[in-house]
Write a structure and sequence with these properties.
The chain is of the alpha/beta class and 607 residues long. Helix content is 24%, strand content 22%. The chain has 14 helices and 29 strands. The protein starts with a strand and ends with a strand.
Length: 607
């Protein structure tokens, strides 16, 4: 069932809203004229009417039980914010030029996450377009955009959205978003949209007035969970499945990143995620190109990516947080929070081999056994990274790796991610060592809610007060500090780091052993006492050998080299990359004694 205001052309519009427990609903036209249009109840709690003299741009609300006016839960646009009338838009008015676009296959993606409001000074969709050329020069062929569903005010991470169908007004609304997506496709860049199907924000959330969208069966840190399995849950499930189809059909989105699926609570024989996966497969067939679902999950559960026929949800891929945690702990030495479960070379070694570090064993931070094994799942089902909006933003100073580790470690981090047998993922600015923080920020209007968020964040960061001063999420300054400084990438170490990322991406694209995301044709070993790892990947006649030294001291080792000879093609210690000068030979052979520079990355092509 399609919901919301569906403009039919010729100033006709079909209005559909799900409200199974209400007795009376009408469309209240607010502008350009004022009139009340009764709705009729149809099957399964849906109310509908088709009205004339409704041009695009018409503002409307729903009048509930003859007394309460509320915006449309499936509003396509909230031009004046979360508390004001919804607007009818003509989805067919935009002139798309991407008719022949087939998308980038998931295994070939180099994904770049960005936040619209801080990516440019203007903070709009259209302001991103001039930067696309530089992203393609870097080697990026997919961008993941943090949530754009309408949220309160004009600055927010996006996870406080309350209108899942409405594109944020301060970013440029539906028209601006379509212009960006169309431009991305013209630059051969796929677009992945971050969507939130596990909760809605508190301010402007009027769903309860329409029906049982929420359930009290389960507890959640974000309020009552959405109702995916209780009475009337079919309407809730349809609300979110139609939302996914809406992004694919009306906005030509190539994939969805599903936020925190562990907070989608349900017990039943028809998991929502399976139903979503089936609906996505059907729309892929209809559109004629593969569309993707990528999950964020804290469960380390193989069912996320396992096919439905084997009892899984059938999603295409998921974020691999364990890889990040293992890498971050090695680079920084931090052992607070979940990092206490990591910090050894053996953790990163296992993640290279199997994806999940915790696959059923005891996790000290969690104080229980955690996860199950995904070692038999292919590498293209996992995204790996050294930084994300979460891992930066959930720090008291919102400090990036560039503010925590030195230049050599930044090159090592990039090398570790980009030579992995997984899909690599960068966070905006990482490619040149951006120094601006990425803090948590909001712009609510409810004083009580603002104070509650302040207290919650202060409590969250209480243990880290020795690292810096708490930053007020509501303050405009907190948001402004997060804007990228694009001028940095043109000089000095920032320029070198950008070129280092570009070089790594190019090698990944041209060396078959790196191109094929195969965990089977891979060997990894480590020497814990020396904090060094060795990695070999191969396919057919292509083979590489990589040395990753996480030690802050120079290390002398006998590397476990395979038979044959290898020629060095990349070394972060080289003067070319503003290193101190490499100590590794240009050519290597089996069982050779090597001296490896501190926190360095070297890549050999084997013959």
């Amino acid at each position: 069932m399609k919901i919301g205001a569906n403009y039919l052309g010729n100033n006709q519009c079909e209005f559909t809203v799900w409200a199974p427990t209400l007795q009376q609903i009408a469309v209240q036209i607010v502008s350009p004229d004022k009139r009340l249009i009764p709705m009729q109840q149809s099957a399964e709690g849906y109310w509908q009417t088709t009205a004339k003299n409704i041009p695009p741009g018409t503002l409307y609300t729903y009048q509930l039980e003859g007394k309460t006016d509320r915006p449309d839960p499936a509003s396509k646009y909230q031009p004046q914010g979360v508390h004001t009338p919804s607007q009818v838009i003509d989805q067919n008015a935009f002139a798309w030029t991407d008719t022949h676009w087939q998308g980038v296959p998931l295994p070939e993606m180099i994904i770049y996450e960005l936040h619209v409001g801080t990516f440019t000074e203007a903070g709009t969709f259209e302001a991103i377009i001039p930067q696309l050329k530089q992203l393609t020069e870097l080697g990026i062929n997919a961008i993941e955009i943090m949530p754009v569903a309408q949220f309160p005010g004009d600055r927010n991470w996006g996870y406080d959205g309350v209108y899942p169908y409405a594109v944020q007004n301060s970013y440029g609304g539906p028209e601006g978003f379509k212009k960006l997506i169309n431009a991305c496709h013209e630059h051969s860049i796929s677009v992945i949209l971050d969507v939130v199907y596990n909760h809605l924000g508190p301010e402007g959330n009027y769903l309860r007035d329409f029906g049982p969208y929420f359930t009290s069966k389960y507890g959640s840190i974000w309020g009552d969970p959405l109702n995916f399995d209780d009475a009337y849950s079919d309407g809730v499930r349809n609300y979110f499945i139609q939302n996914a189809l809406y992004w694919f059909q009306d906005y030509h989105i190539d994939g969805l990143r599903l936020d925190a699926i562990q907070a989608i609570f349900e017990v039943g024989a028809r998991p929502f995620l399976q139903e979503l996966s089936d609906a996505t497969a059907e729309i892929s067939q209809e559109i004629g190109r593969k569309l993707y679902l990528i999950a964020e999950s804290d469960l380390n559960d193989v069912r996320t990516v396992r096919p439905k026929e084997l009892g899984g949800f059938g999603l295409d891929a998921q974020w691999c947080d364990d890889f990040h945690h293992a890498l971050h702990a090695l680079l920084t030495g931090e052992n607070d929070r979940y990092y206490q479960d990591f910090g050894k070379c053996e953790h990163l070694e296992k993640s290279f081999k199997e994806s999940f570090v915790y696959s059923g064993q005891y996790a000290p931070h969690r104080k229980r056994k955690h996860g199950n094994s995904v070692k038999d799942e292919p590498g293209d089902k996992f995204l790996v990274f050294s930084q994300t909006h979460d891992q930066i933003g959930n720090r008291i100073l919102g400090d990036r790796l560039s503010q925590i580790v030195d230049f050599e470690a930044l090159k090592l981090a990039a090398g570790t991610v980009l030579i992995s047998p997984y899909i690599p993922f960068l966070f905006m600015g990482e490619e040149y060592g951006e120094t601006a923080p990425f803090l948590y920020f909001v712009s609510h209007s409810d004083p009580g809610l603002i104070e509650a968020i302040r207290k919650d964040k202060q409590q969250e960061f209480k243990a880290f007060e020795d690292r810096g001063e708490f930053q007020d999420p509501q303050s405009p300054e907190s948001f402004q500090k997060c804007k990228l400084n694009w001028e940095k990438q043109t000089a000095g170490k920032h320029k070198i780091l950008w070129e280092w990322h570009q070089n790594l991406i190019q090698l990944r694209r041209t060396i078959p052993a790196l191109t094929k995301l195969d965990k089977n044709n891979l060997e990894v070993s480590s020497i814990e006492a020396k904090k060094i790892l060795f990695l070999r990947r191969w396919t057919d006649n292509s083979q590489i050998f990589c040395i990753l030294n996480f030690n802050k001291q120079e290390v002398a080792v006998t590397a476990p080299l395979p038979q044959g000879n290898g020629h060095k093609i990349l070394d972060s210690a080289d003067v070319k990359w503003m290193g101190s000068g490499s100590s590794l030979p240009e050519n290597i052979h089996s069982e050779q004694e090597l001296t490896v520079k501190p926190q360095s990355f070297a890549l050999y092509q084997l013959i």
